[in-house]
Amino acid sequence: IRSSLRDYDRLQALAVILVYIQIGCALVGSLGALYNGVLMINLAVAFFALVAMDSSSQSLGPTYAVLLFFAILLDIAWFILFSHTLRNIIPDEKYEPLFAFSLRLALSMEIIGFSVTFFSSILWIQIRIRHLLS
């Protein structure tokens, strides 16, 4: 693993794979009935990441780093505000089973997406360091 983390091209390829996972999580999670706005924001940030990586622009990389930082803060705030509510929703006479499932799906995709985003930010820092040193 260490040898692959030292190779800039492999880091870049892994970053692209992580961005595609973020896009998938955001798309699937946005199908939820409520609380899916943050997933749409994560989708926009992931699309911006693809543009930044494909264009190799010197100004888009730092802009993406700032967007990634604020996306992580937004995800943390979303977890603090809504995760307790979403975990406690059970299908009953107030919530239909499909409605409860869609909310749990949104929560699950947010958890997976946040994990990937957090790992992606660490990888992005590694990429920037490798780029600056080369």
From TrEMBL:
It comes from the Eukaryota. Keywords: Membrane, Transmembrane, Transmembrane helix. The chain crosses the membrane at residues 12-29, 64-81, 101-125. PANTHER family: OS07G0223700 PROTEIN. This is Uncharacterized protein LOC103719757.
